[in-house]
Design brief:
Blueprint: E1 2-3, H1 5-33, H2 42-67, E2 69-70, E3 84-89, E4 92-99, E5 110-112, H3 116-121, E6 129-134, E7 137-146
Parallel strand pairs: 1-2, 4-5
Antiparallel strand pairs: 3-4, 3-7, 6-7
Pfam families: GreA_GreB, GreA_GreB_N
GO molecular function: DNA binding; RNA polymerase binding; translation elongation factor activity
Keywords: Coiled coil, DNA-binding, Elongation factor, Protein biosynthesis, Transcription, Transcription regulation
């Protein structure tokens, strides 16, 4: 899995926050046990479900962090992971940061290099005209800026 440095940092922050919740969840389980019959104890069931989710996510994040390949933008003139690309899409200026799939957040301008737009931009340079193959058809655009 490819990540930018900021993407790796966000995963580490999420992992630390989840690990910090362990004690709180354990206390909720302990308190719920004191209510008696566990078979009809919804508070106990909710706490156990939350514990299960948190532990699963911790394992997932640990694995992601261990296997992550952090890509550092080398300052080249071609669009690559970590590049910030401004394009002209049908007379509409749009700026995207090219990121790995796990960092993708189109609402914040972060698109995956595995998406049709992200993939189409890879390897191209400022001033180049390219075609982006979308499910709805082909979109012609021009790379206006590349950082």
């Amino acid at each position: 899995m490819f990540l930018t440095q900021s993407g790796l940092q966000k995963l580490k922050e999420e992992l630390a926050a989840l690990k910090g919740r362990r004690k709180e969840i354990a206390e909720r389980i302990k308190t719920a046990r004191e209510f008696g019959d566990l078979s009809e104890n919804s508070e106990y069931e909710d706490a156990r479900n939350e514990q299960s989710f948190v532990e699963g996510r911790i394992q997932e994040l640990d694995e992601m962090i261990k296997t992550a390949k952090v890509v550092v933008k080398n300052g080249g003139d071609k669009a690559e992971l970590g590049s910030i690309v401004t394009i002209d899409m049908s007379n509409d200026k749009v700026t995207y940061e090219l990121v790995g799939a796990n960092e993708s957040d189109p609402s914040k301008g972060k698109i995956s290099i595995e998406s049709p737009i992200g993939h189409s931009l890879l390897g191209h340079i400022k001033g180049e005209k390219i075609q982006i193959h979308l499910p709805s058809g082909i979109l012609d655009c021009k790379i206006l800026d590349l950082k």
